[in-house]
Amino acid sequence: MAASEQTFIAIKPDGVQRGLIGPIISRFEQRGFKLAAIKLTSPGKAHLEAHYADLSEKPFFPSLIEYMNSGPICAMIWEGRDAVKTGRAILGATNPLASAPGTIRGDYAIDVGRNVCHGSDSVENAQKEIALWFKEGEAVSYKAAQFDWIYEKP
Ligand code: GDP
Ligand code: MG
């Protein structure tokens, strides 16, 4: 598991409007993960449908797209060892009522249709999502000053 594993994390429109960009970023920073890219974006319906293509047959799909299209999204790439799996753990369960306190959804959300954040569910999907949301060159490569204090071995 390389310390360079990347995951796509997004703060959904409710998280942005509720002023949760700072608190959500803080959790990833404080854990030791490194921010590789960030932007506030309203990518439109077609892009959001592509992002959630796997869920297109679900009854909640139209309302999910409407929710995601209801305001700007804070799109990010976070990097670090086991970033995909640990990123999901930091987010909490999909349904906030089943999310443990201490997770983002467990602390900030109640309804599954307003669950504040997105995180990739596999390394393969992370790569696909990063390619969908970011252009080549938008992610920056740098060594974080704290790297050797976070990792025993690279
Ligand atoms: P995630 O990977 O934890 O975000 O969960 P999924 O990939 O299964 O679903 C994507 C998103 O669709 C979730 O984060 C929710 O916002 C929404 N969603 C999932 N299941 C439901 C549901 O049963 N009802 C509604 N209204 N939304 C749902
Ligand atoms: Mg998912």
Can you describe this structure?
With 154 residues, the chain is of the alpha+beta class. It has a domain at 4-41 and 75-138: 2-Layer Sandwich (Alpha-Beta Plaits). Helix content is 39%, strand content 16%. It contains eight helices and four strands. It has helices spanning 13-17, 21-31, 45-51, 61-68, 83-91, 104-108, 123-133, 147-150, and strands spanning 6-11, 34-41, 73-79, 117-119. A four-stranded antiparallel beta sheet has the order 2-3-1-4. The chain is globular, with a radius of gyration of 15 Å. Guanosine-5'-diphosphate binds next to α4.
Return the CATH topology of the domain at 4-41 and 75-138.
Answer: Alpha-Beta Plaits
Secondary-structure element string: EHHEHHEHHEHH
Q: Largest sheet, order of strands side by side? A: 2-3-1-4
SS summary, helix count: 8
The stretches of 5 or more residues where confidence is low (pLDDT under 50) are none
Bound molecules: guanosine-5'-diphosphate, magnesium ion
Radius of gyration: 15 Å
Q: Write the CATH architecture name of the domain at 4-41 and 75-138.
A: 2-Layer Sandwich
CATH C-level name of the domain at 4-41 and 75-138: Alpha Beta
Distance between the termini: 10 Å
User: For the record, what is the CATH homologous superfamily label of the domain at 4-41 and 75-138?
Assistant: Nucleoside diphosphate kinase-like domain
Mean pLDDT: 97
Number of strands: 4
